[in-house]
Amino acid sequence: MPYGIRKYNKLNKYNRFPIKYGCEACGYEGKLYRHGFYYRNLITFNKAYRVVIIRYRCKSCHKTYSLIPSFIIPYRQYTYHVILTCLIIMFKFNYSFSKIIKFVNSINCMLSINKTHLSFWKSRLITSLTAIRLFFAQLKIFCPDTKNVFPSNLLTMITDFSRLRYDFNLRFFLDMPKYFFCKP
After folding, report:
1. DSSP letter string over 90-148?
2. What pLDDT is attached to residue 2?
3. DSSP label at 19?
4. Coil, strand, or helix at residue 36?
5. Which of 1, 40, 56, 81 could connect to 32 by a Cys-Cys bridge, CB 3.0–4.6 Å?
6. DSSP SS3 for 170
C-alpha cells in the first residue's frame, strides 16, 4: 500500500489489500484467506488514528497473520516517523529528554511523549545498532560506511535511504529476520 496514514485510514476496510500466499509456520504454499480485521491506535505528530489491520489465515494449520502497514512499528502506538524524528533530535542534535518533550509539545501538546518513551526508544535503538548496520552492509544499491556504527550516523543513513524513495521500515522487515525496533 504505497500511500500514507490519512488515505489508508480513510479507505479503512476498503483498502486494496494484497492477496497473500504461503504460510511460514507449516510451509503451505496456497492462498491465505482473509480472516477479519482488528483496530490499532496510532499516534502521529498531528493527531491520533484508529487504523484497521487485516488478518489472514492459513487454510492448512490455521495460523493467522497480520498485514501491518509500513508506517507502523509492531507493538508501538507512535508511528515510525514520530519515533525516528525523536531519535534524530536526540542523537544528531544532542537534545536532552526534556528539550525533546518541549519541542514535541510545541508541535502538539496532546502527544504525551514522556521520558519513559524516549528512554525506551533510545535503548531499543542502541540494542538494534548491529542489525541496522548489517542491513545496510548487505545492500548492493546503498553502500555507506557501515563500520561507523554511532547512532547518529546510522540515523543519517536511515534518513538518506528514505530520501531515495525507499521505505526503510518495510525494507528492513523484508530483508532481515526481524522487524525494525524489535526486542533484541
Report:
1. HHHS---HHHHHHHHHHH-TTS---HHHHHHHHHHHHHHHHHHHHHHHH-SS----TT-
2. 45
3. P
4. strand
5. 56
6. helix
Residues β-bridged to residue 34: 56
Q: Global pTM?
A: 0.84
57 near 64, Cβ under 8 Å?
yes
> What is the C-alpha to C-alpha distance for residues 122 and 95, in angstroms, rounded to an integer?
12
DSSP labels, 41-72: EEE-SS-EEEEEEEEEE-TTT--EEEE--TT-
How confident is the model over 112-138, as a mean pLDDT?
91
* CB-CB contact of 151 with 158 (8 Å): no
Taken as a whole, the chain contains a residue count of 184
